[in-house]
């Protein structure tokens, strides 16, 4: 027994050290309540172009899971709130869900975790009694498939279940949920899984009636007279984000649990709102997300857990314009559906991705597209669209192969590279698509490729309409974390 406890301690410390050494990461949520949702392949091309290496899906979207195969992108797949009840009441339903939505895609799609529901305790409290049973059934199905070390199970919860989050040191979960949360934490502890937290300083600030300054919500430095200090621990909090994470750690500790890491499954800031939402601005959203990225990627934790990185997922990739609610609810996206960024995002001091990057996005003709539509698109691009079509003229470097699809691809891409920063799309009556694969061949170099003839290219993640060009987002990868953890657990158990 002593050997088992010693090995468990060594494994926990080793895993924490490896996680820190590999680096924290920032990922992104992909919601699909979008009226002009790009195809799954185009979504993946956008992820690659922005070097996004971790994503969370709100469901088990078959098209996205398939498109994410062989990309190396880590994926959290979601059980919808509507599915929780059935899975919680039926182990066979849980097994069927795992077989259909996890086993069917591994290992080519790198599914690393399952998020069971979304803020179940605060949004559908009547389902709370079966939440942990659902998680247990899913975990047992993973064990049966020998995937429990590779795929973890957790459930995202909001800050709403912590009634008073400041000062963090006195924060506790809503006592009415103590039984369910205790079961949840015991499950996470037993399975070496993370607590999933949705933390929104935007709401903490806008609903706080001026208690905290805007700078505190946006990770901006505070003057000494405005420093936010926990009176019990004397810890200084430089951001509301850190205070929210720490309040959750203290709430977990209040139920006598430790060593359960927190991953922030949602955070962000809306960039546009209604007349009564003055803080939902592009400037604030840009400031929040850029500062958050730098904060997370420094690899440290909140004041009470300085050695535990806070891996985080931005809410969200696209504006979900079909969502209900206030105007701000529809405008959290960081990327337009045409692949251009809403505002510049950058990772630390890294160099922004430009058109000379291997991660460039290209616009090409679709395989099987209608020839007449391709010809019409080609004519428009070379005419009204203003594309440079000289290279596809007879005798020029991109003339061969002499077919409408090849010529259309060149013209489409030239138009797209010149105009997508101003809102130009890659559609052409449904005959075009974006791709991260460079279509250049021989001496025919497409605009955006590394071998283009001295062309001055716009950033591949240019701004939306009326916005100036800017930097793109470069998000750090640590795809080996789960693998290393699994290997460590395997060897530890093998020695028992």
UniProtKB/TrEMBL annotation:
Q: Which Pfam families match?
A: Glyco_hydro_17, X8
Keyword Cytoplasm belongs to the record: no
The UniProt entry, under Gene3D superfamilies, shows: 1.20.58.1040, Glycosidases
SMART domains, per database record = X8
- Topology class, membrane: Lipid-anchor; GPI-anchor
**Which domain of life does the UniProt lineage start with?**
Eukaryota
The primary location reported for this protein is membrane
Alphabetically ordered keywords of this record: Cell membrane, Disulfide bond, Glycoprotein, Glycosidase, GPI-anchor, Hydrolase, Lipoprotein, Membrane, Plant defense, Signal
As for subcellular location, the record says: Cell membrane
Where the record annotates domain X8, the positions are 361-446
Q: What is the enzyme's main class?
A: hydrolase
Its EC number(s): 3.2.1.39
Sorted alphabetically, the Gene Ontology cellular component annotations on this record are: plasma membrane; plasmodesma; side of membrane
Signal peptide feature range: 1-23
An individual GO BP term: carbohydrate metabolic process
In the record, the note on similarity to other proteins reads: Belongs to the glycosyl hydrolase 17 family.
* The protein's name in its UniProt record: glucan endo-1,3-beta-D-glucosidase
Which organism is this entry from?
Cicer arietinum
């Amino acid at each position: 027994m002593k050997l088992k406890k010693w090995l468990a301690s060594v494994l926990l410390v080793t895993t924490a050290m490896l996680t820190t050494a590999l680096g924290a990461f920032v990922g992104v949520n992909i919601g699909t309540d979008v009226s002009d949702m790009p195809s799954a392949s185009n979504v993946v091309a956008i992820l690659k172009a922005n070097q996004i290496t971790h994503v969370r899906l709100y469901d088990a979207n078959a098209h996205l899971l398939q498109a994410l195969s062989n990309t190396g992108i880590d994926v959290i797949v979601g059980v919808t709130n509507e599915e929780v009840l059935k899975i919680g009441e039926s182990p066979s339903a849980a097994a069927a869900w795992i077989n259909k939505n996890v086993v069917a895609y591994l290992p080519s799609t790198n599914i690393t975790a399952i998020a069971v529901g979304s803020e179940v305790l605060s949004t559908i409290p009547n389902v709370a009694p079966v939440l942990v049973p659902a998680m247990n059934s899913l975990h047992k199905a993973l064990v049966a498939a020998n995937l429990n070390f590779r795929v973890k199970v957790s459930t995202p919860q909001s800050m709403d279940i912590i009634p008073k989050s400041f000062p963090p040191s006195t924060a506790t979960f809503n006592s009415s949920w103590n039984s369910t949360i205790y079961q949840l934490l015991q499950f996470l502890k037993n399975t070496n899984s993370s607590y999933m937290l949705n933390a929104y300083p935007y709401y903490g600030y806008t609903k706080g009636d001026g208690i905290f300054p805007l700078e505190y919500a946006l990770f901006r430095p505070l003057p000494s007279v405005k420093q936010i200090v926990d009176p019990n621990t004397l810890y200084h909090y430089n951001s509301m984000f850190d205070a929210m994470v720490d309040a959750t750690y203290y709430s977990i500790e209040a139920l006598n649990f430790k060593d359960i890491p927190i991953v922030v499954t949602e955070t962000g800031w809306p960039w546009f709102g209604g007349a009564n939402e003055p803080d939902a601005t592009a400037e604030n959203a840009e400031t929040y997300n850029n500062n958050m990225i730098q904060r997370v990627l420094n690899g440290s934790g909140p004041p009470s857990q300085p050695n535990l990185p806070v891996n985080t997922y931005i809410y969200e990739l696209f504006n979900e314009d079909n969502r209900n609610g206030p105007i701000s609810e529809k405008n959290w996206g960081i990327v337009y559906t045409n692949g251009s960024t809403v505002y510049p995002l950058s990772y630390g001091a890294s160099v922004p991705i430009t058109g000379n990057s291997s991660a460039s996005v290209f616009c090409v003709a679709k395989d099987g597209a209608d020839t007449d539509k391709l010809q019409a698109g080609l004519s428009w691009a070379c005419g009204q669209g203003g594309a440079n079509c000289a290279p596809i003229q007879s005798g020029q470097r991109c003339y061969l192969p002499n077919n409408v699809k090849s010529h259309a691809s060149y013209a489409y891409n030239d138009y797209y590279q010149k105009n997508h920063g101003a809102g130009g799309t890659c559609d052409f009556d449904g005959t075009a698509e974006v791709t991260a694969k460079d279509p250049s061949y021989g001496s025919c170099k497409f605009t955006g490729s590394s071998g283009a003839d001295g062309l001055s290219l716009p950033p591949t993640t240019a701004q939306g309409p009326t916005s100036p060009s800017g930097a793109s987002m470069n998000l750090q990868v640590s795809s080996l974390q789960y693998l290393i953890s699994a290997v460590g657990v395997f060897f530890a158990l093998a020695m028992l």
